[in-house]
Amino acid sequence: MAKTNPGRFFEDYSVGQILHHAVPRTVTAGERALYHALYPARHALYSSDAFAQACGLPGSPIDDLAAFHVVFGKTVPDVSLNAVANLGYAEGRWLKPVYAGDTLRSVSEVIGLKENSNGKTGVVYVRTRGLNQRDETVMEYVRWVMVRKRDMDAPAPDTVVPELKKVLAPEDLVVPAGLDFSSYDFALAGEPHRWGDYAVGETIDHVDGVTVEEAEHMLATRLWQNTAKVHFDLTFRPEGRLIYGGHVISMARALSFNGLANAQMIVGLNGGAHANPCFAGDTIKAWSEVLDKAETGVPGVGALRLRLVATKGGAPFDLRDAAGKYQPGVLLDLDYWALMPL
């Protein structure tokens, strides 16, 4: 019997299959330090215990995307070890903050399958939940991945494409217990702009850029225990190691601080696409568009629906060409809800 894990191929999945992912991970304050070393992350709620306590939380949580990466990384050996590409996200919700000392594990359910017309690959849809040591779900999301087939002659499964919400409604969002922005300190947060200062349709050029290096990408991918071959093995993708899409998400989110410093917590992920591959040497820049606004009913807390676009060249706000295709310089198109003081 083979002792090594070659990863699952498309024909190894079935709708309804439950995948319990190894290995649980206890996050520490070191997780935050490494995250802030990798990205220019400066949102105050994730930087200062005192600031978080003044906002009603017991302390500063682990960055929402750092927690996402830990949960995501667990799924890779079972979902995307043999992936060609991670294609998209939907119905993502952050349900509870993650604090240093919490232990996270991941469970996924296969909710859809569709073989591609070339017969060489197929798309696998999974709904993943991240759970803490109390078996509380701290986050959940759907993603779909293009996966290679092991046997080109294997029969195609029945096509099942799940119906997913295009946008989470404001009532789907969960505001962390105790959060209160009534006495929010804008000076310490870094910008004066509050929820009422943003208008639907407004666009923001975040100005700054960061050139991606092999060393930081490799460190990040190992930190999240993401073992996908396309991120490590040059014989698997000779044109270059593909930069982990989550690395691009975190870089763009950190760059968005300049203009959205008070968009403190990500609580919903409506959708996302990794539009074009990112490689070492690419310089990531970012811009945002305000898509919607909602009040939450929680003291001082509003929600902004934002489109976050990461690029590797080209003018800001240039998303698609005349045919509706993403411009070649667009790396990421992410649609999310964030909490902001009213």
Notes on the structure:
- By secondary structure, this protein is α+β, with helices and mostly antiparallel strands.
- The chain contains 7 helices and 10 strands.
- It has helices spanning 29-38, 49-54, 64-79, 186-189, 214-223, 245-255, 257-260, and strands at residues 18-26, 83-94, 103-115, 121-131, 137-148, 203-211, 265-274, 283-295, 301-311, 330-341.
- Strands 1-3-4-5-2-7-10-9-8-6 form a 10-stranded antiparallel sheet.
- The protein is globular.
- The chain starts with 17 loop residues before the first strand and ends with a strand.
- The model has no long low-confidence stretch (mean pLDDT 94).
Describe the structure in brief.
It is built from seven helices and ten strands.
